[in-house]
Every structure is written in structure tokens, then in C-alpha cells.
Amino acid sequence: MEWFDSYEIRARIAPTVIIILPLIIMFFSIFQIPESLITALISLGLFFFVIYSLSFFIRELGINMQKKLWEKAGGPPSTLIMTCEDLHLSLELKKQIYKKIKRKYEIELPRQNDQLNDPNNFSRIVEGVFNRVRADLHEKSQDDRWKKQNAEYGFLRNLAASRLLWCILSLIGIFGCFIGWIFYKNDFILIGLALNIIIFISSIIFGWFKSQKVIEDAGFRYAEYAWNAFLTLP
Q1: Sequence spans of domains, the chain
Q2: Which residues of 128-149 are buried (b: 16+ CB within 10 A; e: fewer)?
Q3: CB distance 213 to 156 below 8 Å
Q4: What are the tens digits of pLDDT across the range 100-123?
């Protein structure tokens, strides 16, 4: 895996930058941009190190949250979207996908009655098939919409899973800017304080009130794009 492929940047690095942004704002609001080139380079290198290291922790939080969401929903979107009850894909499109799975992988998915009688078996089979589909998409697909949507889903999932850390760092940024303003009385610090207050409010609204719905929507869009891209494979 590359250090900074497009997925890693959007799904892992970007949410980490947003989460740590209040501390960056606090630092530069109080201490300004270092005049010494060496100091600036050291500071920049330290921030990159912290962001890159923290991003692995952010990803693990996202994966754990994803497992809980899937358990609650009854399975991942890539599986649920293929059930007879789900309406994200048309019945005709599902029939085309079923036929291609049988032709390409020699696997016949359970039909409607079998799905209803044994949904766990259906989920197990579809999850196994989708793992093969995803591998083929990475290798052969010319349609990159599913990749972009997968990265968006990863970004939203990881950001939502880190909501408590995001909230705590925002409060630290607010407190730090407030103390800095008491000592230095600098208007630039007030701007940093205002920005961190906005970030704190955003972390509350997104993390606790909006995240689950947008994550579910992003997950189903990814599944929809992926299964559609599968039909274009040779």
C-alpha cells in the first residue's frame, strides 16, 4: 500500500487534519508563524508526524464504528443493497448482477424465497462475492466513481468515529486561545478562538446529530456505484 494514495489522503489523512485543526489554530494564533526557517521546518515536520501517526488510530476508530453500524443495520450496504427488499437498485439491474456473478464466479445467489428463509446464509454468500468483486474492480475497472465514493464513505466514517476526540481537542483549542488572549491581548488570537468555537459546535452537530445518516447514505452510494461498475467488467 502506498503511503499517500488518493484513498489514504481522503479517508485517513483528511479527517485527522480536521480533528487536530483546533490545536494547529491555537498554536499559530498564539505563537504566530516562526521567523526562523529551521524552526518553521521543525514545526512543520512535527505536525506531519503527529497527523500521520494519529491517522492510524483514527482509522481503527472508524473500523470499530463501522462494525457496530453494520451489526445494527443487519449487514454492510454492499450486501443489503442486493436483497429483494432493498430499493436502491432496480429488480432488473439485480437480475443482471446475479447473472454476471453466476457467469464470472460460477456462484448462484439465493433467490427471493431463499433469502427470506435464510438471510444469514445470503449475507455470507454476498459478502464473499463482493470481496472478489472489489478485488476485480481495483484491478480492472475503468470507472473510478466507486473509488471516490469509497473514499468519501471512509472520510465520513472516520470523522464520525473520532467525534469525542474532535470535541476534546476543540475544547483544548478554545481554552488555549482564551488563555493566550489573556496574556498577550492579540486580536489574532481572538480570531483563532472564534474559529475553534465554530469547530467545536460543528463537531457536536456532525458527530452526534448528523453523522449516522450521512454515513449510511455514503455507504449505499458506494455499494451502488461498485455493483454498477462490476457490470462493466469484462
Answers
A1: 6-76+144-231
A2: ebbeebbebbeeebeeeebbeb
A3: no
A4: 999 999 999 888 777 878 888 999
